[in-house]
From TrEMBL:
Listed name of the protein: Aminopeptidase N
Catalytic activity, reaction form: Release of an N-terminal amino acid, Xaa-|-Yaa- from a peptide, amide or arylamide. Xaa is preferably Ala, but may be most amino acids including Pro (slow action). When a terminal hydrophobic residue is followed by a prolyl residue, the two may be released as an intact Xaa-Pro dipeptide
Record-annotated Aminopeptidase N-like N-terminal domain positions: 49-189
Cofactor(s) this protein requires: Zn(2+)
Function of the molecule: Aminopeptidase N is involved in the degradation of intracellular peptides generated by protein breakdown during normal growth as well as in response to nutrient starvation.
Pfam families with a match to the protein in the record: DUF3458, DUF3458_C, Peptidase_M1, Peptidase_M1_N
GO biological process terms held by the UniProt record: proteolysis
Organism annotation: Hyphomonas atlantica
Domain Peptidase M1 membrane alanine aminopeptidase: 228-439
Annotated EC: 3.4.11.2
Domain of life, per lineage: Bacteria
């Protein structure tokens, strides 16, 4: 059967809900196979006198329905696949519904489901309608109380939003708990968890002296591994007080870790639910990247309490209002916890690899889209990461102080409301007196702006002229674009490193800046888009000499790193196209010198040693040949390793005697070691396998162990098999670490490897982390394997997607986005990718997946 793509929802169709839900009282009688949910809704008409009451509902079995105590006959309502409609309801009344749901059969992981034998929920964006009949839209905000009953022995801990109330025992070994949330909230922030957990507890005293009870709930035996998440939570709470003046507003804050989760985590009011991958960590089982991710995701969810929960979105088109802003906040938190330039570079690597690719393909959409097919597919790099960049530009334009004033006004004016991007900008217009109309094109125009740069220097007059031209490429549904307002920090730097710095607001199609330098001046270096001020693609034709000068003279760490990247990119492209057989010795020398020169800042040195990967190179040349790009990248890595061999020997030869600490300093040292391990693995050196195996054996932490294992996974031979078998035997009972075992093989192998991994007894279609550790690690991080010209990579992923989509549509759809670049591929892979997409289009896909396939084929 062929599935039709879902009907699109339009921003312009927004209308307010004609009723207010003054109070929601929920009662859950929890049983895995048949949970009874009773909802008492106190409703008051606020719109037209003849408006019908429309409630969303999906996969619910209606048991009873009554208004003000009187049961309704079937003729009084219309029940469909998607909800319940009641005509002629009174102006103020209480509606009581009882429904039955089956959490144990809920494999979509949306609504109430079971994970590891415990109950949990996921309601964003539209999961609450799978729990009860309700206006499941973010602009309907209400007060919730919850009473739940469950078997006491199996589910001793019962949690929901807000503040705990009465608890007690009932018949048949069951018990109950009541929770009351004093803050009005939309249904997507509702949460409930029930189960047997180990609990890691702590307290936080807020700036006004309130003591908050904090708890992280994890699987039995995992409590020690929750310490870092707790520490991150306390630092987040403090940071939000110091940086934004925001205090926590309930007496308790609970986190629950679950094994089966579609995303990273969820900001439910007072009860954040996390993918356990972003809670559990210790030295032996987690990498520094895991520690960093936990820190930033804990912060992200906590920060949502103000940007998302207290002030939420009027409709899902405004998703970036909470997500872009909250990502911006968590990125700044991480920058304050660690190194600001290193954080900035990592954020940009991610943006370029994921968001720029999205912006350049058939799935491109604006930061605030005006239409969508399936809401789950709106949780994109564009909404999150580009959304954060836009806030970063806003802050740079306004300056710290005015930005903070605008935020204060926003919190003040809109607390308790569901608002729009326009409401948000009105606050900044008011405090600054500026007009942000043109700037707001960043929300409505998709595509990454390209800015080309031309420079001239007149030695007689000592005049420097810089001409900027901007162009926003056409994207689906948007052919003619207006010029954007692009803020760019710039500088002129002389040979001694002296400089003049300013910010340019580039608002027309073209702009020429001229500078007259004092007598005796030499041609300066022009530094543009410092710290990656704006999320643009800079097109600049610099000769090699100027590029090398830039590495030496740039005072902006981002641009210095980017100068190395630009050189490496050109080299990899030349190698991949055959216009050059071997890497240029002088260039490799320059990169190596940059790495060794930065060795007093090992985290930065590690970033310099990390060559741009195929994801980033994909956009540089069309058509793209991922196989050739990957081979060329490895060649350059091998050459770089050749230059760095001695340095690598000495860095890798030192073994740390310090006790393990996940903080920035030690993590930086390990980052450099792992970067060098990566180069060693790509070096093709005879001794690589043995060296990697001994590094693997000697490693005292997961960061270095995994780097060595990844290196080995990409080689052939006995050392590879030994290490993989050893790792599997050691970690077989730790699912998060086993995800890494699957991931390193999928990230380095071919279609046959994936087939083997998918047939492994521990591969589980119901666990998104496991599916992603195979299918996403292959299709999104191993582009040479996935885009194999014979189509084998597509076929093996297609097979997994078809199965995963049946179990969990959000997961199936997410994996499908790996095909988004198919049109940019070299002809063979392109034809195979298209054939695969056409087969998928003809298959019986979920709505979410059909939406991606139809847009991808566009
Ligand atoms: N609001 C969460 C992301 C999230 C979105 C959807 C989910 O399930 C369909 C789960 C989480 C965040 O930004 O962290
Ligand atoms: Zn978020």
């Amino acid at each position: 059967m062929r599935t039709e793509a879902p009907v699109a929802v339009q921003l312009s169709d927004y209308t307010a809900y004609p009723f207010e839900i003054e109070q929601v009282d929920l009662r859950f009688d929890l049983h895995p196979d048949a949970t009874l949910v009773r909802a008492d809704l106190k409703i008051r008409r606020t719109g037209a006198a003849d408006a019908a009451l429309e409630l969303d509902g999906e996969a619910l079995e209606l048991k009873s329905i009554a208004i003000d105590g009187a049961p309704l006959p079937e003729s009084a309502y219309e029940l469909t696949e998607s909800g319940l409609t009641l005509q002629d309801v009174p102006n103020a009344f209480t509606l009581v519904t009882e429904v039955e749901i089956a959490p144990s059969k809920n494999t979509a992981l949306s609504g109430l489901y079971m994970s590891g034998g415990r109950f949990c929920t996921q309601c964003e964006a539209i999961g609450f309608r799978r729990i009860t009949f309700y206006p499941d839209r973010p602009d309907v905000m209400s007060r919730f109380t919850v009473r739940m009953t469950a078997d006491k022995e199996t589910y001793p801990i019962l949690l929901s939003n807000g503040t705990p109330g009465e608890t007690g025992d009932v018949d048949d070994g069951r018990h109950f708990a009541v929770w009351d949330d004093p803050h009005k909230k939309p249904a997507y922030l509702f949460a409930l968890c029930a189960g047997d957990y180990d609990v890691y507890r702590d307290q936080f005293t807020t700036m006004s002296g309130k003591v908050i009870d904090l708890a992280v709930h994890v699987d039995k035996g995992d409590a020690d591994r929750a310490a870092w998440a707790m520490d991150s939570l306390k630092r987040s709470m403090k940071w939000d007080e110091e940086t934004y003046g925001r205090e926590y507003d309930l007496g308790v804050f609970n986190i629950v870790a679950v094994r089966d989760f579609n995303f990273g985590a969820m900001e439910n009011k007072g009860l954040n639910i996390f993918n356990s991958a972003y809670v559990l960590a210790d030295e032996a089982s987690a990498t520094d990247a895991d520690f960093e991710a936990i820190e930033s995701i804990v912060a992200h969810e906590y920060f949502h309490n103000w940007t998302g929960n207290r002030i939420t979105c009027r409709d899902w088109f405004q998703l970036c209002l909470k997500e872009g802003l909250t990502v911006f906040r968590d990125q700044n938190f991480s920058a304050d916890m660690r190194s600001r330039p290193v954080q900035r570079i990592k954020d940009v690597i991610r943006l370029r690899a994921r968001q720029f690719a999205e912006d350049a393909g058939p799935l491109a959409h604006s930061v605030r889209p005006e239409t969508y097919g399936a809401i789950d597919n709106l949780y994109t790099a564009t909404v999150y990461e580009k959304g954060a960049e836009v806030i970063g530009m806003l802050r740079r334009i306004l300056g710290e102080e005015t930005y903070r004033k605008g935020m204060d006004l926003y919190f003040d004016r809109h607390d308790g409301q569901a608002v729009t991007i326009e409401d948000f900008y009105a606050c900044f217009e008011e405090v600054s007196g500026d007009d942000f109309t043109q700037f707001r094109l960043w929300y409505s125009q998709a595509g990454t702006p390209e800015v080309s740069v031309e420079e001239s220097w007149n030695p007689e007059t000592r005049e420097v002229a810089v001409t900027l031209k901007q162009r926003v490429p056409a994207t689906p549904g948007q052919t003619n674009k207006k010029p954007m307002l692009i803020p760019m920090e710039m500088a002129l730097i002389d040979d001694e490193g002296n400089m003049a710095e300013w910010i340019t607001l580039f608002e027309d199609e073209e702009l020429t800046l001229t500078f007259d330098l004092p007598e005796g001046s030499e041609r300066p270096l022009v530094s543009i888009n410092r710290d990656f001020t704006a999320p643009i693609r800079l097109k600049r034709n610099l000769d090699r000499e100027t590029q090398l000068a830039m590495i030496r003279l740039e005072t902006d760490p981002f641009n210095q790193w980017d100068a190395v990247q630009a050189l490496a990119k050109q080299e990899i492209l030349a190698l991949s196209e055959g216009s050059q057989a071997e890497p240029d010795d002088a260039l490799v020398d320059a990169i190596a010198a940059a790495v060794t020169g930065a060795s007093d800042d090992p985290a930065f040195a590690a970033l310099l040693a990390r060559l741009p990967d195929v994801n980033e190179l994909f956009l540089e040349r069309q058509p793209a040949d991922p196989v050739a790009l990957d081979a060329a990248r490895k060649k350059l890595q091998a050459a770089l390793y050749g230059k760095l061999r001695q340095f690598a020997d000495s860095v890798l030869g030192e073994s740390s005697t310090q006790a393990y600490d996940p903080g920035a300093e030690q993590a930086g040292e390990r980052a450099l070691r792992t970067a060098l391990i990566g180069l060693l693995a790509a070096s093709g050196a005879d001794e690589a396998g043995d060296r990697l195996l001994s590094l693997y054996k000697a490693a005292t932490n997961m960061t270095e162990k995994l780097a060595a294992l990844r290196g080995l996974a990409g080689l052939d031979g006995e050392a590879r098999e030994t290490a993989l078998a050893d790792f599997e035997a050691e970690w077989t009972s730790n699912p998060l670490v086993m995800d890494k075992w699957f991931g390193v093989q999928a990230g380095t192998g071919d279609a046959a490897t994936i087939e083997k991994l998918a047939a492994h007894s521990a591969f589980d279609l119901r666990n998104p982390n496991r599916v992603r550790s195979v299918a996403a690690a292959f299709a999104m991080q191993n582009l040479a394997g996935f885009h194999a010209p014979d189509g084998s990579g597509y076929r093996v992923v297609e097979d997994i997607i078809l199965k995963a989509d049946k179990v969990n549509p959000a997961l199936g759809a997410r994996l499908l986005t790996a095909f988004e670049q198919w049109r940019s591929l070299e002809p063979k892979a392109k034809a195979e990718a298209e054939a695969c997409l056409r087969r998928l289009q003809a298959a019986d896909l979920s709505k979410n997946s059909a939406d991606i396939v139809s847009r991808a084929l566009g």
